[in-house]
Amino acid sequence: MISFPRIINSIPGTLGIMSIACSQLVNAQTAEKPNIIIIYADDLGYCDVSCYGATRISTPNIDRLAKHGLRFTNAHCTSATSTPSRYSLLTGEYAWRRKGTNVLPGDASAIIQPDRTTLASVMKNAGYTTGVVGKWHLGLGHEGGPDWNGEIKPGPMDLGFDYNFIIPATGDRVPCVFIEDRTVVGLDPNDPISVSYVGKIGTWPTGKENPELLKMHPSAGHDMTIVNGISRIGYMTGGKSALWVDENIADVITGKALKFIESNKDKPFFLYFSTHDIHVPRVPNQRFTGKSGMGPRGDAILEFDWSVGEIVKTIKNLKLTKTTIIIVTSDNGPVVDDGYKDEAVEKLGNHKPAGPLRGGKYSAFDGGTRVIFIVSWKGKIKPGTSEALFSQVDLMASFAKLTGQNLATGVGPDSQNHLDVLTGKSKANREWVVEHASNGRLSLIKGDWKFIEPGPGVKVQANTNIETGNDPLPQLYNLNTDIGEKTNVALQNPLIINELTELLQNIKEK
């Protein structure tokens, strides 16, 4: 038999940071306030970087950060896809608890409302200047979507961020523009933007109708409006002066991140730097083209490593290494062919993006949610490796603890304080971690055991060739002896299945 923690019910709807008692005010005043930078990759696999075992590709900047920091081998995002992972990271709540938190279209309205406490507002409450640069993908504006030609509100600046420079959704979804603070960058008011995910608008060519205009062809879907020679998901027209150039995205957002750091070097800052790499369409800058030998996907990994290096170099040049925590992680696991013919499959060779893990992006198997996780804080975090079970959902409560704050009941309901694990002072495992697949299937890890709840569905996702983890029967794997989840031992362990099923149900009802 295995024991489980008591599930404590939280009071929903109680938002904000709770009042701090007089005895705790001293802690808040004397709490350390290091700068915090979260570098969030997109679709980067557990073994896509060399410090996690990749041999066909070298990521020296990430490796260097890992060498001088703490490298986690059992850290998890909360979902195998983008929007729900980002939602959980910023709210401290599992996305599957809320309707409408699945992968969003590019014109979705905001799914985090301004009255909600976020990781950014927790840091702002502690006296930090806060910024988000890069991919957002959490919706913008009120119901019906944002006004692309006016003030875009609500958005990140209504959720605790003092500054934002964002990609509204993803690189493969229209509109293909940047937003700075509340407006589209470089928009000509005489050429207003229109966006539709229902049907074609305007006269701009599409990948389906005009494949001869494409410099990268879709393998599945992605055949709507063409921007920069690449057809996307969704239709748009207008805003020509504001359109991004895919080859320059990493340079632009990395530059904005560096400017934010430099502008706030004399006061505590929190930066959520959410890169586009290595999401499709993979169109890295020509500096990286052909350098990996694995096509655009490999080249995009090199570009991501460059972005990490630029952040680290800037922190070093500003003499902030002893006062800055840098975290490098990913929103979910890897996918090779995700809708474009970019030679990712043909040039993969013996590279295994998920390493020994089964599945990948979208999947209930660990390849979908076990991610790279490196944390560095010179002089405060001892270099090494941590095998502790850790979840990104815990960053809110852990950083609240770091800055001397308590979260009110109902705020970050799934976030737990594991600051000592994060900083390497403890090797204690989280009691359990819940993982979420793209089809809504939940998994539970506790100790050595991984339980995947039963349910219908295809076993291999079309086009991506990724195992979904779907099975009408319960699945149970011993991750200590079977990290690849190859042998389902559910039938041999009915008592464990019953207990894990009950625990997962209790967590759902929390």
Task: Set down the secondary structure blueprint.
Layout lengths: L21 H9 L4 E7 L18 H8 L2 E3 L2 E2 L5 H10 L27 H7 L3 E7 L27 E5 L11 E2 L2 E2 L9 E3 L29 E2 L2 E2 L3 E3 L11 H15 L5 E6 L20 H23 L6 E7 L42 E4 L7 E3 L3 E2 L3 H8 L16 H4 L10 E4 L5 E5 L2 E4 L7 E2 L4 E2 L7 E4 L15 H15 L2
Parallel strand pairs: 1-12, 1-13, 2-15, 3-16, 4-5, 4-12
Antiparallel strand pairs: 2-14, 5-6, 6-7, 8-11, 9-10, 13-14, 17-18, 18-19, 19-22, 20-21
Helix pairs in contact: 2-6, 5-6
> What is the CATH homology-level superfamily of the largest domain?
Alkaline Phosphatase, subunit A
Distance between the termini: 23 Å
- Number of discrete domains: 2
Sheet of most strands:
10 strands, mixed
Placed side by side, the strands forming the largest sheet appear as 7-6-5-4-12-1-13-14-2-15
Helix content: 10-25%
Query: What global shape is seen?
Result: globular
Summed over residues and divided by their number, the pLDDT gives a mean of 94
| Total of helices | 9
Instruction: Report the radius of gyration as a whole number of Å.
Output: 22 Å
| CATH architecture group name of the largest domain | 3-Layer(aba) Sandwich
At the first level of CATH, the class of the largest domain is Alpha Beta
Query: How much of the residues is beta strand, in percent?
Result: 15-25%
Uncertain regions spanning at least 5 consecutive residues:
1-30
Offer a few descriptive terms.
single chain; 510 residues; alpha/beta; Alkaline Phosphatase, subunit A; 2 domains; 10-stranded mixed β-sheet; 4-stranded antiparallel β-sheet; 9 helices; 19% helix; globular; disordered N terminus
